[in-house]
What we know:
With about 200 residues, this protein is an alpha/beta fold. The chain has a single domain (about 5-204), classed as 3-Layer(aba) Sandwich (Rossmann fold), CATH 3.40.50.150. The protein is built from seven helices and seven strands. It has a seven-stranded mixed beta sheet. Helix 7 (about 155-165) links the parallel strand 4 and strand 5 (about 170-175). The chain is globular and about 50 Å long. Residues about 25-30 have low confidence and may be disordered.
Amino acid sequence: MIDSQLEKTLHAISEFFDRYKVGYEGNKGYRKTTDLFKFRHAVIDLMEAGYLDREKTIFWDLGCGDGRVNVFISYFVKYSIGTEIEPLIFEEYEVRKKELENTLKRHLLQLPPDNIYLFQGDSLSEAIERQVFKHTGCSFCDVDLFYTYITLHDVFAEKIIRDAKKGAKYLVYGFSKILPSYHGMKLVNPNVGIQNIMALYEKM
Length: 204
């Protein structure tokens, strides 16, 4: 489980990124960001279900933005991979990560593990898959847990159904009351973390 030192670290990370939160729910708008205070509850759910393992789990955020989810979940997985199509948004990652690390150091908290790999480009492209493999040795079909905001959930679901391994999980953030169904996936948990905003699917 999460020890007290890590709990303090995760709280500090959530507070840090909360200052830069954009949007809340739904699929409208240019940009959305994950509320890490809510995401923490999802992480606990995923841990208890056995879906997160620091020695094995490969995670991929298909629209990682400034990398906040990748930083947060890096403490719980083997590889924390992220891809972001917008160059200007992607550029925020390095600046904010350095600022975050300085904050964590000042409070004697745990720095993120050296397992975060972010790439600028189209998550649906073969070029991005080649970059990911070059730097991590991981193929799309090796990924255990995919993540995205609701905006392009259906497009990413199609790729996961087509190219991911059987049993791969797909966590989608931004839902409210109506959950979609994907042909080729089953709904595993309609309310991950009991926050009424995340649902977990599994490729059949």
